[in-house]
């Protein structure tokens, strides 16, 4: 649509009308909503659906996949909370997260900062750090089994240097089995996390570090007082990812190396879910622990988000 105006000389000037605000604003929004529908359907079926199923199965007495199902109500909750193995799993999981997560994040950030400074051979270092992420979980477990078995590399090295009294059956000892699993978590996660931090630190302007060094700050203060606040929110995201991986993914390492033993000394919550579902065939108990695991993950994510939120 155009408008006509007349000049003092009698000439007529055409002015095109501005585009309609409603037309220009509605179309992109409607198009974006339509494009999001398949993703929303996928999310509802394969993400929200299983979460609802966990809560439903937790209220059932289901002794095996092909067995009759009956309503249990809160009986599974009482059974779980009265089981000492469950509390051992809670304690082991808490120790695993409290030890592995801080060590992994702090060491990975320091390694990532070093790589981001582009020292000689930094490209090769990035590849070397990424190698644990390219190895399958069974292969990692076999490496640790070969190192920690009674006749493995660790005991052989201790005997070679005259410290044979310190040798132990590391994976079969109640005092060291969980520590071996934590060491595996740290080794397998620290390199991959360091590469992520290095990639993020590469986007920090060099002028920030140069200005700090001109003011007399060394690398340590520059790393923690200048670069860390800039990528604080990204550190929070990576911490949440590693928290979830450690919380929910520890079952595979336990299954491959210790089977939760000796006793329940290395049983974690995620392994207890597997053990009760596929070995003990008690699906109601298993998914009740799954509900506890889900709530623990939700609370942990909210806590990490609060700790690492930006202060400005």
From TrEMBL:
Locate the region Disordered.
Answer: 1-28
State its location(s).
Cell membrane
The protein's matches in Gene3D superfamilies, at most eight in alphabetical order, are given as: MetI-like
- PROSITE patterns given in the database record: ABC_TM1
Outline the extent of the ABC transmembrane type-1 domain.
90-304
Q: Which domain of life is it from?
A: Bacteria
Q: Does the keyword 4Fe-4S apply?
A: no
Q: Which Pfam families match?
A: BPD_transp_1
Q: Transmembrane region positions?
A: 34-62, 94-115, 127-148, 176-199, 234-257, 277-304
Which family does the record assign?
Belongs to the binding-protein-dependent transport system permease family.
- Protein name per the record: Carbohydrate ABC transporter permease
Q: Which organism is it from?
A: Streptomyces milbemycinicus
């Amino acid at each position: 649509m155009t408008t006509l105006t007349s000049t003092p000389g009698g000439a007529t000037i055409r002015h095109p009308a501005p585009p309609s605000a409603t037309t220009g604003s509605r179309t992109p929004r409607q198009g974006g909503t339509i494009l999001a529908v398949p993703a929303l359907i996928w999310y509802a079926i394969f993400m929200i659906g299983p979460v609802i199923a966990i809560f439903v199965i937790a209220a059932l007495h289901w002794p095996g996949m092909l067995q009759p199902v009956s309503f249990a109500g809160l009986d599974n909750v009482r059974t779980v909370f009265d089981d000492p193995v469950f509390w051992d799993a809670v304690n082991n999981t808490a120790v695993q997260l409290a030890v592995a997560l801080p060590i992994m994040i702090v060491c990975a950030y320091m390694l990532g900062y070093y790589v981001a400074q582009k020292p000689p051979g930094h490209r090769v270092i990035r590849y070397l750090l990424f190698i644990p992420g390219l190895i399958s979980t069974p292969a990692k477990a076999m490496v640790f089994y070969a190192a920690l078995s009674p006749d493995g590399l660790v005991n052989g090295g201790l005997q070679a240097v005259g410290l044979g009294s310190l040798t132990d059956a590391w994976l079969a000892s109640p005092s060291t089995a969980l520590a071996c699993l934590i060491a595996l978590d740290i080794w397998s996660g620290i390199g991959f996390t360091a590469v992520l931090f290095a990639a993020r630190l590469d986007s920090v302007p060099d002028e920030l570090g140069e200005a700090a060094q001109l003011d007399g700050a060394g690398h340590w203060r520059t790393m923690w007082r200048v670069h860390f606040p800039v990528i604080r929110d990204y550190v929070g995201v990576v911490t949440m990812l590693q928290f979830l991986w450690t919380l929910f993914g520890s079952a595979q390492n336990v299954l491959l190396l210790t089977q939760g033993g000796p006793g329940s000394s290395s049983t974690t919550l995620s392994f207890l879910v597997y053990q009760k579902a596929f070995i003990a065939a008690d699906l109601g108990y298993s998914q009740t622990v799954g509900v506890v695991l889900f709530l623990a993950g939700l609370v942990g994510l909210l806590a990490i988000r609060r700790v690492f939120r930006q202060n400005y």
